[in-house]
Fold this sequence. Notes:
By secondary structure, the protein is of the alpha/beta class. It folds into 3 domains: about 1-120, Response regulator (Rossmann fold), CATH 3.40.50.2300; about 130-225, Winged helix-like DNA-binding domain superfamily/Winged helix DNA-binding domain (Arc Repressor Mutant, subunit A); about 230-375, Serine Threonine Protein Phosphatase 5, Tetratricopeptide repeat (Alpha Horseshoe). The protein has helices at about 10-25, 35-45, 60-70, 85-90, 105-120, 155-165, 175-180, 185-205, 230-240, 250-255, 275-295, 300-315, 320-330, 335-350, 360-375, and strands spanning about 1-5, 25-30, 50-55, 75-80, 95-100, 130-135, 140, 145, 170, 210-215, 220-225, 230. The chain has a 5-stranded parallel beta sheet with strand order 2-1-3-4-5, sandwiched between helices. Strands 8-7-6-12 form a 4-stranded mixed beta sheet. It has a 3-stranded antiparallel beta sheet with strand order 9-11-10. Helix 3 links the parallel strand 3 and strand 4 (about 75-80). The longest helix has 24 residues, at about 275-295. The relative contact order is 0.07. It holds the Pfam family Response_reg.
Amino acid sequence: xxxxxxxxxxxxxxxxxxxxxxxxxxxxxxxxxxxxxxxxxxxxxxxxxxxxxxxxxxxxxxxxxxxxxxxxxxxxxxxxxxxxxxxxxxxxxxxxxxxxxxxxxxxxxxxxxxxxxxxxxxxxxxxxxxxxxxxxxxxxxxxxxxxxxxxxxxxxxxxxxxxxxxxxxxxxxxxxxxxxxxxxxxxxxxxxxxxxxxxxxxxxxxxxxxxxxxxxxxxxxxxxxxxxxxxxxxxxxxxxxxxxxxxxxxxxxxxxxxxxxxxxxxxxxxxxxxxxxxxxxxxxxxxxxxxxxxxxxxxxxxxxxxxxxxxxxxxxxxxxxxxxxxxxxxxxxxxxxxxxxxxxxxxxxxxxxxxxxxxxxxxxxxxxxxxxxxxxx
Length: 377
């Protein structure tokens, strides 16, 4: 394996070089005391691994690692640090391994064993179809089969989701820090951000995906590189859909089913609310059109199923209760009619402190009279 060593302390650099040479497992192609020189060399030489001190002047090891990953996504980073182990935990996500100074030969051997195993393992298969990122209900990546990613931290997951959310625009680093780590001081916030970016890149690489996190001096943007996004695919299909007719009902029912749940609804992401509501309204308008045709076609059982789903997603729309009351009446499900009116009253009182609209109350009162008359007869 080709390696570059980076440490601003000359003695520490020589000691690490000496110990690595003793192993006969590493070809050292450069040793550098400045971050800029190390970056230039790494971009030119593309080493397999960089042994990188964290506490560096000008650019920290975390910042260097971030730039390396941006240009060389398959590079391995090993941090070498004088920090105590408890302080290094923040960086553990950010590297293949870390070694505490002074470097001990047995600890270095374990790191090399880990590197050898990683480089010997076959790379994750990249599919002809790059797969789909799913954001309806929860975050998931489909490659050969649906896969929920086990993120090391919830912040890395949210950062990935947010970059997907803002996929058409670069997002400034200070904005990301304010969003994800608002109570953290600036220096620690940047460290947390670089750590999360590194983890996302490593996760995408391990999955064999071409999606990349691109960085500039001030921010980040995700490039999907052929991967699909279920929300984009669904909306595009909806906009291009054929008119809703008896012959195309099955197609439109399937399109409704592709909306498996509200946008990232499983997570408490306030920034997702606007997009969540926008997609909900698109689904709602489409569902109403499909529901009306189901009723016109006399497919009442299917209409009841659909309107119950609409009611679940939009529990504060009075007219949905009313439609269900009339559908249950046509199906002679009298108890269900009663339950719908009771649920409507409860919702109206709790949410709006008022009464159901007069036309609904009048219909229900007349219905009750007719059912009482029928039972008397």
